[in-house]
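User: Can you model how zinc ion sits in this protein?
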Amino acid sequence: MPSEPVAGPFVHRVAALACCVLAFGFATPPAQALTVFACEPEWAALARVLAPRASIVAATHARQDPHQIEARPALIAALRRADIAVCTGASVEVGWLPMLQQRAGNKRVLAGAPGMFFAADAVELIDKPASVDRSMGDVHAEGNPHLHLDPERLAAVASALATRFALLDPAGATGYEQANAGWQADWARRIDGWRERAASLAGRGLAVQHTAFGYFWRWTGIRAVADIEPKPGLPPTLGHLQQVLGLVRAAPPFAVVQTLYQDPQPGQWLAERIERPLLALPSTVVAEGRAASLHGLFDELFDRLAQAAGAAP
Ligand SMILES: [Zn+2]
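Assistant: Here's the modeled complex, given as structure tokens:
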């Protein structure tokens, strides 16, 4: 009877599965899974944590500048299908999202609709300019919108997003609340670890390009001593780079930091002259590898910065 021991448990497993599927089916009909359009990868990653059953599309990836995206037909089609759009807001997407909204013709994700979620509405922004005019460059008038690199603000956005998912999909509300509670507990433990790591970086100086990591510097106590952008949003010029070099030559920062989507040449120019590394760091969740999750992204930033800071004299 060699087949008995194999067939027996298999039949039992099928029977058990059928019983539970039926029981669940009658007790709580499965909620309609949400279709989520995430403007940036960090919001796709957060949505995946809070709504694992949702169908999620990220409109951009880490090697694209989220300020400058082309309103391609594929993005219009994706927004047309969405129950909710999850974006940064505070004008990051001002150059492309309104056009997508207009062309998609999906009332669920128009500004002001519950299906249009802006992370920047859930938290206070830093670096709000006292006054804004065009001569200041393509400045972020509402403040620095790149808020997801502050782990505490990210947690506040997670709770707000879970609440919004529950509003749009009441049948799944308990699931979103539980997913958020579980994630928050895990995230709080990670924040404790990152706080310790930040202590060894606090006070150290970096040269940067744009305010992409502004919240991360503020949270860790790292100082951005120079910005190789002549004005916010404008590409570096040789004249400005020479000014920056003059400014930092006497006490060089421990590295020059850029995002994965910025042209490395200007940063490299400065890095070579001050004999410090150019770090191209992920400013959001990447497609694969360690920084492919939200916590992995923060771990990666701490590792790369700690390594560079430790190596600098
Ligand atoms: Zn920006």
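A couple of observations from the model: The radius of gyration is 23 Å. The longest strand covers residues 223-227.
User: Helpful, thanks.
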